[in-house]
Specification:
- It holds the Pfam family ASL_C2.
- Helix content is 61%, strand content 4%.
- It is mostly helical.
- The protein folds into three domains: 16-107, Fumarase/aspartase (N-terminal domain) (Fumarase C, Chain B, domain 1, Orthogonal Bundle); 112-148 and 164-361, Fumarase C, Chain A, domain 2, CATH 1.20.200; 365-461, Ribonucleotide Reductase Protein R1, domain 1.
- A hairpin with a 2-residue loop joins strand 1 and strand 2.
- The radius of gyration is 31 Å and the shape is elongated.
- The chain starts with 15 loop residues before the first helix and ends with a helix.
- Bound molecules: arginine.
């Protein structure tokens, strides 16, 4: 036996070209432990249906256990002649227990229901790993936010100076999307958990009296597929996870872009730790943000994996089609990419050194307190439309004089508008501006302290 799972109706073996095209062991071998767990559960339901004697069951379970140990240690691997992980493991199990018992296990199951089930279990495990790594990144952001609770920076829209904000507020703005990604992963898992396809067979279910609910429970699911066609044909679980992984990639990439900008001479906001930056082979002075650049680059890759998957799925008729073999590599790649990226990125974030004095000195520049003038006027009873005009006129005056807003004299303010009494100066400091934004979600120190506690709580709850 060469590991082929079919052949009875064929006169000869497949052409070498077909075998080369068809083969999937180079990427599906990583599902071997999951396939063996499925086999254990399947052997038990065969036994429950009276299709295996007690002795057969014992021999099969012992054989699967011994094979699992050899797979885990790397002592056995797929052979050149194996088409896929399922065929390879059947061949190896027969080597363990002989063809008489080993040949019974395939009854009532198909590679179609096997692969759909194993793929789910594998992805559920890795979604948990990624969720943990994303939470580590949120934790690093929260630690940095705590260290910089009182430090102001220029807040931007359109990359232009907009209004001063706290650095901690900005850092936590990156934490929330990541927390939503973690809850997306949890939601995805809950949806996958109710739908174990094992027992669907090739597409129509089994005639052998097997219990799909029992297999489902043994494999950690809450229930089995209500529709055997859907169970074997659906891949929305792959696409949905690929989306969430792509979203994580994008959320990390947006942070990465800021680290790259902030580490430039021109910004000078942040210094990277030596252990998390790279040098140049020719320019001795260089310290490059390669982790952030790789994060930005890899986001493109995980987006591509999602787009490719959706393209593979879009016109597939029910039920199983071999096209579906193309569903694995993209999402394996997304998982692998994030699992190697996230620890490096978290290390980089945790060790960033912020140049807080420079950030503070830039915070009021670019007339970023103009909104504070307008809102002060509103509190003095001036309609906002007029207040906006007056504050804009102050900016124009500053540009003529080449000064910042707080450098206008009382007389110059009064010339712009009689409403601009010296009291306006109370809001013309970064501190005053930040403290005044004290509604929920605002950048005032008390609000940010509360927000940090909310982030900590969300980390703890996940
Ligand atoms: N290797 C296939 C896959 O990844 C599973 C096998 C189903 N093959 C088949 N010819 N029915 O989707």
């Amino acid at each position: 036996n060469t590991g082929a799972l079919w052949g009875g109706r064929f006169a000869g073996g497949p052409s070498p070209a077909l075998a080369a095209l068809s083969k999937s062991t180079h990427f599906d071998w990583r599902l071997a432990p999951y396939d063996l767990a499925g086999s254990t559960a399947h052997a038990r339901v065969l036994h429950g249906a009276g299709l295996l004697t007690d002795g057969d069951l014992d021999r099969l379970l012992a054989g699967i256990e011994s094979l699992a140990a050899k797979v885990a240690s790397g002592e056995v691997v797929a052979a050149e002649s194996d088409e896929d992980v399922h065929g390879a493991l059947e061949r190896l199990l027969i080597e363990e227990v002989g063809p008489e018992v080993g040949g019974r296990l395939r009854a009532g199951r198909s590679r179609n229901d096997q692969i759909a089930t194993l793929f789910k279990v594998f992805l559920r495990d890795h979604a948990r790993v990624v969720a943990g790594q994303v939470l580590d990144l949120v934790d690093a952001l929260a630690d940095q936010a705590r260290k910089h609770l009182g430090d102001p920076m220029p807040g931007r829209t359109h990359l232009q100076h907009a209004q001063p904000v706290l650095l901690s507020h900005h850092l936590l703005a990156h934490a929330w999307p990541l927390l939503r990604d973690v809850s997306r992963l949890r939601d995805w898992d809950a949806r996958v958990a109710v739908d174990s396809p094992y027992g669907a067979g090739a597409l129509a279910g089994s005639s052998l009296g097997l219990d799909p609910e029992q297999v489902a429970r043994e494999l950690g699911f809450d229930g089995s597929s209500p529709n055997s066609i859907d169970g074997t044909a659906a891949r929305d679980f792959v696409a949905e996870l690929a989306f969430v992984l792509a979203m994580v990639g994008v959320d990390v990439s947006r942070q990465a872009e800021e680290v790259i900008l902030w580490a430039t001479k021109e910004f000078g906001f942040v210094e990277l730790d030596d252990a998390y930056s790279t040098g140049s082979s020719i320019m001795p002075q260089k310290k490059n943000p390669d982790i952030a650049e790789l994060a930005r680059g890899k986001a493109g890759r995980v987006i591509g994996n999602l787009a490719g998957l959706l393209a593979t799925l879009k016109a597939l008729p029910l039920a199983y089609n071999r096209d579906l073999q193309e569903d694995k590599e993209p999402v394996f790649d997304s998982v692998d990419t994030l699992e190697v990226l996230l620890p490096a990125f978290t290390g980089m974030v945790a060790t960033l050194r912020f140049q807080t004095e420079r950030m503070a000195s830039l915070a009021p520049q670019g007339f970023s307190l103009a909104t504070d003038i307008a809102e002060w006027l509103v509190r003095e009873g001036v309609p906002f439309r007029e207040a906006h005009e007056v504050a804009g006129a102050c900016v124009r005056r500053c540009e003529q004089l080449g000064v910042e807003l707080d450098e206008l004299t009382d007389a110059q303010f009064a010339e712009v508008s009689s409403h601009l009494t010296p009291g306006v100066r109370s809001v013309l400091t970064v501190e005053g501006s930040i403290a005044s934004r004290s509604g929920r979600g605002g950048t005032a120190p008390d609000r940010v302290t509360e927000q940090l506690a909310e982030v900590r709580q969300a980390i703890a709850e996940h």
